[in-house]
Each structure stands twice: as structure tokens, then as C-alpha cells.
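[Automated response] Your request has been received and processed.

Submitted sequence:
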Amino acid sequence: MAPYEPEQNTSESGGPRAGRRKAARYVVPVAVAGVAAATIGLVPALATSGDPDLPDVTAQELIEKIAASDTQQLSGNVKISTDLGLPSFGGDLAGGFAPGGGGGSDEGGDGEGSAADPQAKLMELASGTHTLRVAADGPDKQKLSVLDDAAEYSLIHNGDDVWAYDSKSNEAYHSKTEGKAREKAQGKDSGDNSGKENLPEGVPATPKELAEEALKAVDDTTSVKVDGTAQVAGRDAYRLVIKPKQAGSTVGQITVAVDAKTGTPLKFTLSPAGGGSAVVDAGFTKVDFGKPAASTFDFTPPKGAKVTEADDAKSGEREHGFKDGGKDFGGKEFKGGQDRDGLDGLNGLNVMGKGWNSIAELELPGGQGIPTAGSGDVPPDAQRLLDSLGDQVSGEFGSGTVFKTRLVNALITEDGKVYAGAVTKDALVKAANSATAAK
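Generated structure:
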């Protein structure tokens, strides 16, 4: 099937326009190895077969089909992988950065935290290849299992209860949603996020979640078209291709395979502008849109399992300097917005540029950056290690280091400024020079 361009890529009726501007500003993560990995996640390209002959549709019609899709019931397997070009640190290190993470019994910890805490455990999706088993039956029942060779980690939402279980450590983590999912589904959500903090955030794990995040960034800096058809997990699908119009972005294109019948995204692929394998590729290898068995969502902790209650874990976090509201961390107050959503609450946050070339500018606590060559602040061996992890750059802003992944790059200057975005090194240097000249 030949490509079809929409008449208007960004019309009011052509996609998720409401709130798009704000979402587009925050499409760029700031922390290269942390936020970037957590918001991206995922597989070597999954093999698709066939080129089904489907009725012609425009991109606008396909976006509307995705927005209108209301798949309440499904089950299947998703293969997911991430190739950011970062060293593999392993799940224990990644989880250790999350509040409440680490300290599980399999790590010889002191009993604080839980190896089953979703906020820590799901960070493992930030690298490597993983197979997930997923199931859903409406807004009150979902299950996601991460399958390893000799272990399984499951996250189960059933009514007001959220259970997580790690078979490797025989630990369980329990929290309550306080009926918020049901109230939201019934249109009674007051906007209060009470209970939401007990659920894992920021780790899209299905093609639909990834596609929704990508579509939030669609604006006049974006080209959107239908580019043929494919077959994924035995289902006929359209291929929706999203590309930046601007030069300087590290994003090459995003491809979403959309189920022709239901409008459900079946496969998501993010390709870098520099070529090579996909940075993100997640897709169903098996999918069934029938009602899962009710027993799928039942869970009782096995005998002898260590059970951690979310309220108890949060009390421990506060005692160690993690405070509710996101305004304090170890006693340091962040200046800026008090909203925990997106990047608000970071020190001196400013977003430069537009669309795919957006660059986040902020300040490190203390106003001090990473030592550069010749500063004499670190031993020579340590300096060589720092130099090997990034590129030394200089300009009107002074000097600094650019840390690179295959998607997100960040410039940290000697005076503690950070410029980060899904843009090239040259774009970061230019942004730092412009910010300096404007002051």
C-alpha cells in the first residue's frame, strides 16, 4: 500500500490536540540514564509477515481510530527491549536509585525497602530484552508479568488492591488504590491523585502506552503519514509513521503498527536519526482480545513470603529524607514548580526551543558541574574515567562535558548548568551559548 499523507497533520479533529503543547515541551527527559531510560523502554525489531491489502486511510483517520479505541479486555505476550547505547548496570543498581528500592532479602539488606517494589523493579525494563505477559479486563483488573529464565515478577491490580510479587526473593509488595481507578472509569474522578502514588509511574510497557506518549508530541514540527501495512501477532495492521520535520533531533522516526479492526497499537518502534538498530522496539508476539479468566487477577502471597505494605515503606522513605510532594529531597528544597508531573519541581527549569528540538535547561544543586580536564579537582585516573564517559566541549558558556546516548544527550557545564534533549551535541552547545549570551 502506498503512503497516505493527511490533509492536515495537526487539525483540532486530527488527534490528541488538547494539552499537546505542554506535553510536547516535556517530551525530552533530563536524566540521561534515569528518566530517559524509564520513559522509553524496549526489542530487537519483531518480525512481521505479510503485507495485507486494507482499505486506504489517512493519517488523520488512523490517529482518530487510535484515540477512539476502547480495548478493555486482552491478553498476550509482549517482547520489549532498550538499546540506548549505555553500559548494562543490571537491575539491582537501577533499582537502588528508586526510593524504597533495594534492601531486599536477596540482596542481604537490612529489611528496609522491598525487592518487589514496582517503582524499583520495573526500572529493569530500562535495558536489555524482556518478555512480558499482559492481561486486562477493564479499568479494575490488570496484570503484567516479567518473565526471566528461572524467575517471574508479577504486578497485579484487582479492584482496590495492587500486589507485586518477586519469585526470586519470595517478596511481595501491597498497596491500595482506594477506588481511584473505578471512580475515574465512572467519570467521578475529582482530580485528586490519592492512591495513585502506590502505582508505578513513568515506565510505559505496552505499545499502546508508548504510542500515546508519542502522539502527545505531534504538532506543526511533526510529519505524520500512513506508510503501508503489516501483520503483527497474526493481526492485520496499518503502519503510522511519525517523523520530526526539524534538523538536529536524534529521533529518526517512530513507527506504530495499528490493529486494523480495533485501533489498538500492536507494535512501537523508535529509530534513531543516526541509523542502526532501533532504540525502542516493543510489540505483541501473541494477542487475544477475549475476556481473560477471572483467576488471572487473583493473588495470595505464598507461604513464607515477606510482605511489605506501601504505607510502611513510605514512612521509611520520609525518615530517610524522601518527603511527600516532591519538593524536598534529603532536606534540599527545589526551586520552580511544585507539580510532580513531568519535569516540574526541578531547580531553575527552563525549556528552550520547540517540538523535537526542545532542550531542558536546569541547574545542579550547589551550582557546581563535573570537573573538566585541567581543573585539578580530581586525581588523574578519575579524570581519565570521566573523560572517557563524555566529550569535552567549550564555547561562550565556558567548558563542560556532553554525555551521550543513542537518543538523549546532556551537556553539564563547569558552573553546574545542564542542557539535555533528544538533540545532537552541536545543538546542546548552541543552546548553552545562546543562554549565556541572553544573560
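Summary generated for your ticket: The radius of gyration is 22 Å. The mean pLDDT is 73.
If you did not submit this request, please reply to this message.
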